[in-house]
Specification:
single chain; 204 residues; 10 helices; 0% strand
Amino acid sequence: MQRRASSRTGRRSNRERTEVTRGDLIAAARKLFTERSYAETSTPEIATAAGVTRGALYHHFEDKQALFRAVVEHEAQAVAEEIERATPPALSVRRALLAGADAYLAAMAVPGRTRLLLLDGPAVLGRTEMDAIDLRHAGRTLREGLAAAMGEGAIAEGPVDALTGLLSAAFDRAALAIDSGASAADYRSAIAALVEGLLSARKR
């Protein structure tokens, strides 16, 4: 019994060490990618910053692009979590869409996030893969909100995927503008007006 318990503890410790190492690599890579760009960052520099060997890096990630993909996925998930926290199920469809839009802009204000998700991400991984990542995270939350609005007749029926893509593009443009120094209040108001206008287009 004692030996089996120790064995189970050892397996948990190995798993935990793996998760810690991956987390350290993702955190180190994020810092370097946002400070220096993807192109100007090397895997030896990432390994050094994470406190691991280059061999350990390649044990967890196939190459630099795979590590970058993990960083991007981690950031996209963080944005979605912020949106979900701001939009509990008790909210009406209207309030959820407005709160979600505001939460998205707040989440994208984290330093380096617009560069990773909206600039370097498409350049390194391609638009198709970035769209797929978005649809697993923030894009998914938006699509669910729009689908709920359509179900309630709050907006005209139509291709929800196309509407999600168009509204996502508006949100991304606002995040980039704010990151470049534009008035966050102005863009928040503009996005709110866009959502309100969409919701006011009642199904006929």
